[in-house]
Amino acid sequence: MFSRWHLPRPILRKEPDGPSPDHAARFRMAIMPYLDAAYTYARYLARDSAAAEDIVQEAFARALRAMGDCRGDEKAWLMAIVRHCHHDWRRARRHEWPAQTEDDREDPSAMNAMESHVTAREMRGLIEQLPEPFREALVLRELQEMSYREIARITGAPLGTVMSRLARARAMLAGLVLAPEDGETRPGTQEKRS
Amino acid sequence: MTHKPCPERVHALHAMLDDETDALATVELEEHLRGCPACRRELDRLGQLREYLRVPELRDVAPAALAMRISQMASPMRPRRPARAWLGGAVGGALAAGLAFLLLAPNLTEPGLDQAVVDGHIRSLQAGHLTDVAVSDRHVVKPWFNGRLTFAPPVPDLGASGFILGGGRLDVLEGRDVAVLVYRRRLHMINLFVRPTPALSGLRQGLMRRAGYGVERWQMDGLEFLAVSDLDPADLAQFRMAFIRGAHSGNRER
What we know:
The complex is a heterodimer.
Chain A: H1 21-31, H2 35-46, H3 49-65, H4 74-93, H5 120-129, H6 132-143, H7 148-155, H8 159-177, H9 189-192
Chain B: H1 10-17, H2 23-35, H3 37-53, H4 64-73, H5 82-87, H6 91-104, H7 111-126, H8 138-145, E1 164-173, E2 176-185, E3 188-196, E4 206-210, E5 213-220, E6 223-229, H9 233-253
Antiparallel strand pairs in B: 1-2, 2-3, 3-6, 4-5, 5-6
């Protein structure tokens, strides 16, 4: 049902010729408007602004080269490329900092809950602490306003998985950001508070 | 009393928040919500969370240098390699394709022009530089162009047709100064580029679509008009009609 896209491979060598004028024009009109969106997504994935720049530049270079393979839904197509570039970037870095891999960070549900007024900066920090699959679903849905179907295509996950990741991401964030519900303790926060 | 939402409804609540439920499921869930305070509260919490996520600071703006580098990748005038690529084996094909375009698609003869006006439109919205003269009074906008241009664009009042004049500015198209009139319909902006009809303009009229933007092009009284907007094509066509009508009755009026 959700056919996977044909996504461009990494650029290993300089192409002998540039993009065709048609592709370049389409790239400018249909892909470049999503630069901020792509950068936002890359930054939440990489949690580093310089890395996000590299990732986005590589993603746009690949997108330009593969413009002919893009059949509609340019934003989702671009996001899928950004995602691949992020994975490649991480794979390349894996040996540089082996200690800090993605998901051995602290469990977000174990962080102390924020009190009522959460600033945007704190909010960003909380989102960045979510484990990647949840963070990614949340960012694509809430910040990029992608549909479930598009998120499924971008991440290559089934629709049901997308829905449960999103629900889980929101539950984790809500537990940290919103006032606790009466008579209910947020999982994980209780032990830390003493 | 329990505060947990019904486990079997959790995904449905999220889907409802995201407007991803069909009508039938929505009705069913609404009915459930009427009788279930815990699920109502959960939906409310999700709404609150969304409010937190709405703040613009959570969305990034790409650094200008990055935008520049990417823009250069796809620039039509890339200084580095294009010339040789063009002169390579593909020259015959390119010539044939060019000829086919010329013969078969007269309104595509200047693909750069449509792109230039769409670029201009986007730029005007992004840079907050929509108008040099921001008034809705055509008796102010029209004289404003005098002395700034060698031609006088018509500036009809189209309020009766639902297109509100927002002002005017100067812009550059293909190296020449042009007038831009800005009209608005609801939240949609229309940039109308006006310039003297170039020589050899041929049959290049009608609607082009580029990346969600429509470009409606027509000629009248020695001037060429290019209207760019994200409006529905039908609305843009309506704008063209209203403008032509308005410009003509305006001429008669004074």
